């Protein structure tokens, strides 16, 4: 059976974490938002070429999920991956440099917005292929289990990817071999311009977990603490799957994979050329009223953990980080021409 997260929402929740931790979540969410807004500005002015897919509006999923993991745990992302990377510890200046095509970028200026990784922090990469990192995450989890490394792999993907064959093949393998992996679907309602319910006859992506005898959980993707709690439970469950895979399906009580569906919304279009003509202003207004940063900020203020001065200081700090990232990227050298063929195998 699919489960809805039963913990308290932000309106009912009493702070249990220290102020520094909670303000850290708030700061990182603001950093992701400002980074994405700046990237949108830079593309609009032609300072950055190509295309990009922005995650503004979905910050609570990235920050909540990564906050639930241990440093050694691994994360894989998708085409909308800047926020995931920052939440896992990626440096905004190097991400920005990659967007500018500079040598100091994470892929030495060759990967662009959709293809960056940093193995040192456990970020195994983003991918421009819809659903492309789901089987990679499954393989990483299998590797961890065979080598008895004890860490968990989490993969972010959108609801559109849940209709790809790689999604079903991966969940089947993870369930059959009881792998330490968390599948986290960010359901922002639209795969490009296609609404989820026009291509799926089920209301929730998480229902698909039943076919593979793994838990399926639905969570409010705009509530950073709810996302953190759900992912933490799933990660600890996955961590119990330490023995090598055996033939046949493992019982659910033995641990293993979980499918989480986080209900959220992206503010920008699918990519920079998308004018969002398929959405109504009323729908967008409803989701903006539930802005994840606004919800967390209001909750922190209500409990005396955030005042106007602290908020202003955090926002100024975030703005400074983003502006420094832009300056760093603009001043960084371009890759040498004689290295253009490096890393090309076909």
Helix- and strand-based class?
Answer: alpha/beta
Q: H/E series, N to C?
A: EHHEHHEHEHEEEEHEHHH
**CATH topology group:** Rossmann fold
Strand order of the largest sheet: 1-8-9-5-4-2-3
Average pLDDT across residues? 92
Biggest sheet overview = 7 strands, parallel
Q: Approximately how much helix is present in the residues?
A: 25-40%
Terminal residue distance = 46 Å
What's the architecture in CATH terms?
A: 3-Layer(aba) Sandwich
Helix segment tally: 10
How many distinct beta strands?
9
Could you list the spans in which at least 5 consecutive residues all have pLDDT below 50? Answer: 249-253
Rounded Rg:
20 Å
Count of domains: 1
Assign the CATH class.
Alpha Beta
What name goes with the CATH superfamily? Answer: Thiamin diphosphate (ThDP)-binding fold, Pyr/PP domains
The backbone outline, from C-alpha atoms, is globular
3D architecture notes:
The chain is an alpha/beta fold. The chain has one domain (2-330): Thiamin diphosphate (ThDP)-binding fold, Pyr/PP domains (Rossmann fold), CATH 3.40.50.970. It has helices at 19-44, 59-67, 82-87, 92-99, 133-146, 165-176, 224-239, 281-288, 292-302, 308-331; strands at 2-4, 74-76, 123-125, 153-158, 181-187, 190-191, 194-195, 216-220, 258-263. The strands form two sheets. Strands 1-8-9-5-4-2-3 form a seven-stranded parallel β-sheet, sandwiched between helices. α1 runs antiparallel to α9, α1 (19-44) packs across α10 and α2 (59-67) packs across α7. Residues 249-253 have low confidence and may be disordered.
